[in-house]
Design goal:
MetI-like, MetI-like fold, 10 helices, single chain, mainly alpha
Length: about 290
């Protein structure tokens, strides 16, 4: 083999690795900026809205861009900027609360399952398998049909739908960690199950659990937006981003901003979350040597 070619391979490999390593940082920064921006909108949007959310401010429906109404007007002549700023609170807030609850309960059940006797582990696992076999949208439709639509019910539905997924991810990591030497040493010292679960296992699986939390957040945003688009989510006079798309569907053939803006908002939110999660996952892989 030509020695020049042989020498060039490590260099080219190093350059390729450097490009791969530097790439996700920009995407991760972009994802972080988008996520923080939407979080700020959810927190302060209602105070930044230039008009009351339900006020008709124009005689023209589906109005385009103007200095008075940067996002145009909706099918009733209401200011879309104000409605998006207020609607983001429901989308981001409900999804964040549901994701935190689903991840917390799922991880807690996983830790309980791993440190419990075999029979209890089997019962918990089989219950989770039964719930995970039900599609999330089908479960949501059943619950809304049975109990009616409300903010509390939407959160409960999303939590029940995504607890099994969080449980499976957390349990797979907890089982591997539970077999490691330092956990066995803690058991030999006579530490209780609660101590082993909370002090030995949980801290060493926290980063993957947080990554999974971000993924669940994105899934729940899409679930709640889909439910609102079907008219089964947040009910008038309140509206989330999915509701804004549904109620302005009449402007689709006109390319109205009233339907484009909330659709873009949902897209940027989910893409930003995924970019941030991909960056955190790749950073964790590089720290562990790609394993």
């Amino acid at each position: 083999m030509n020695p020049l070619i042989a020498k060039s391979k490590p260099v080219s490999s190093a350059l390729a690795l450097a490009k791969v390593s530097s790439g996700p940082s920009w995407l991760g920064l972009l994802g972080a900026v988008v996520c923080v921006a939407w979080l700020l909108v959810a927190l302060f949007g209602p105070w930044l809205a230039p008009h009351p959310v339900g006020e008709v401010v124009s005689d023209n429906i589906f109005e385009g861009f103007s200095l008075t109404h940067p996002f145009g007007t909706d099918y009733l002549g209401r200011d879309m900027l104000s409605r998006v700023l207020v609607g983001a609170r429901f989308t981001v807030g409900l999804a964040l609360v549901a994701a935190l609850l689903a991840s917390t309960f799922g991880t807690g059940c996983a830790l309980l399952s791993v440190v419990s006797p075999k029979w209890l582990d089997e019962i918990i696992s089989r219950i989770m398998d039964a719930f995970i076999s039900i599609p999330s949208k089908m479960l949501a439709l059943i619950m809304v049909s049975a109990f009616g639509s409300s903010v509390t019910l939407l959160i409960c539905t999303a939590v029940i739908s995504y607890i099994p997924g969080s449980f499976r991810v957390a349990r797979s990591m907890a089982v591997n960690i539970e077999a490691l030497e330092y956990v066995q040493v803690a058991r030999t010292r006579g530490e209780g199950r609660l101590y082993v679960a909370c002090m030995e296992i949980l801290p060493n699986m926290l980063n993957p659990v947080l990554t999974d939390l971000g993924l669940r957040f994105g899934y729940i945003v899409l679930l709640l937006s889909g439910m609102s688009f079907l008219g089964l989510g947040v009910q008038p006079p309140d509206a989330d981003l999915g509701s804004l798309v549904r109620e302005n569907i009449g402007g689709l053939n006109q390319g109205a901003l009233a339907i484009i803006i909330p659709a873009l908002a949902i897209g940027t939110l989910t893409i930003g979350v995924n970019l941030l999660i991909d960056y955190l996952s790749s950073r964790r892989s590089r720290r562990t040597g790609g394993h």
